[in-house]
Specification:
11 helices; homodimer; eight-stranded mixed β-sheet; alpha/beta
Chain lengths: ~325, ~325
Amino acid sequence: MNYLTTDKLVIVGAAGMIGSNMAQTAIMMGLTPNICLYDPYGPALEGVAEELRHCGFEGLNLTYTTDVKEALTDAKYIVNSGGAARKAGMTREDLLKGNAAIAEQFGKDVRAYCPDVRHIVVVFNPADITGLVTLLYSGLKPSQVTTLAALDSTRLRSELSKYFGIPADEIVNSRTYGGHGEQMAVFASTTMMNGKPLTEIIGTEKLPDKDWEEIKLKVVQGGKNIIDLRGRSSFQSPAYLSIEMIGAAMGGTPFRWPAGVYVNNDRYQHIMMAMETTITKDGVKVMPVKGTPAEEEALDKSYRHLCALRDEVISLGIMPPIDQWGKLNSNLG
Amino acid sequence: MNYLTTDKLVIVGAAGMIGSNMAQTAIMMGLTPNICLYDPYGPALEGVAEELRHCGFEGLNLTYTTDVKEALTDAKYIVNSGGAARKAGMTREDLLKGNAAIAEQFGKDVRAYCPDVRHIVVVFNPADITGLVTLLYSGLKPSQVTTLAALDSTRLRSELSKYFGIPADEIVNSRTYGGHGEQMAVFASTTMMNGKPLTEIIGTEKLPDKDWEEIKLKVVQGGKNIIDLRGRSSFQSPAYLSIEMIGAAMGGTPFRWPAGVYVNNDRYQHIMMAMETTITKDGVKVMPVKGTPAEEEALDKSYRHLCALRDEVISLGIMPPIDQWGKLNSNLG
């Protein structure tokens, strides 16, 4: 089997449904033979490693460990789905605090054990925050950390495909930016159907406004819908897409969807949000995107919501105030 | 994305853990864009279809249905993991009867809706029986039906790799034939380590007999061990390997492990068992294999066990007596 690179890829949270799928996906994509599975939950982690050994892959050098230092040492690429799931009785703030704390420790571990890592994809929720916290504490450059942010866009494509009864391929460049779910900014003007922008179709009899609102609602509820249907959170799509992202960062197939990225420019400051990007061996780069005035306004609104969430995290003492970020990570100064 | 073929592939049992992994694996392997997911459990099936749509695959024509006729019509390849799992209070015989009945109906459905199917891989337990029942009622040729039988061999490779602390690739041609688990016949003489048959290593200080017995026990308990470790039955390895099998039947990468196949020759009659095979576009073909006298005897014993199981199934009225098989399927006459 030919692999794209021999660099060490670490899957954090490998004992879980997303992490175990990530590992299988990375192997099948032929990214690297050197894959290390890490998770603090030893038995399930070993079970995943056993399953993957039992697949009989060729040329694979699969390791696993519950020791974070061992896992991260020499890591060049990391995909992290190792957050906690929301449990009964937990408030949204409990989850936010818990996963932000996990991201903080992860960032510190990266700084301590693999400062030469090339790229990290953060998947656990809320990824805009956990990615930002990881970036802050790891000391990495903004180009080296991305978060999974493609699912709203792929769900938009899927819903449009179902609505019009056409192959998903005929819907090109479906895009949401900014935050996720209810906070996403849908850029319908960039979405092409048979060469026509979706904005020219919305409000016509082909796609009445009411139906368009329903489509967007279905996108927002896409994750909840999976739970209702399958009785478990989605794991195949987040796993697959995040491995596509790390594959692009390794110099493989370009990633075709928005990614969560640290933005600090004239318009948006000190925030992690879904943007148009390219992900290459040189890392992630924000690409320009131009929507209608209403879409741009929606993106501004989404940004403001993300700022409020970030500031809440700061006020909870999980992150220091922005003016102190440069002390923690000189790349953010 | 380039696909191996455009023939219709049906995943039966697609709502389950094995089936949903099969679908993702088949897409990622680029076997065919025309994949139909079938399962009688509608909501979970839709959830799996949604997840796969959300992956954003290119060029995919994914359909799903709870209507078996719709699913099987025009099917050219089928992988079936649609058996029932053993539930609390069920005896072994209950499970056997239940899954044999499912296989019988599946065989009849194949005969009714897709008599031109090229190849079927049967995965649900006990696969030696469910595969045989499928073959009998479908009317297909023995070359067109295989069962997943590779896991004992991949587990043997994995256990040897762990025991010797060497890459799995250095263990070549690890093989078990006949039945599964405790009934498997291990062909250590065909297994090469650095060019040396394993039989020359067993009983030496490198691999004392006691340790070899422990390795075999670990292979037998490989599936149970996954349940103990992960809290769920293995699904990634059976899914991956069975899709490798159907890929080989489509003319893709050769399958590198034993497969369950209908055998009726001078030595073994009217039985489905793990053998050395090739799987190509022309179907499955049994290949000769030569073990030590002790290994050959173990295979004979394994065959006799499978015959007893088959005869039990006949005595339960699930299958007709062998002398009537030709009336049901002229290819077995």
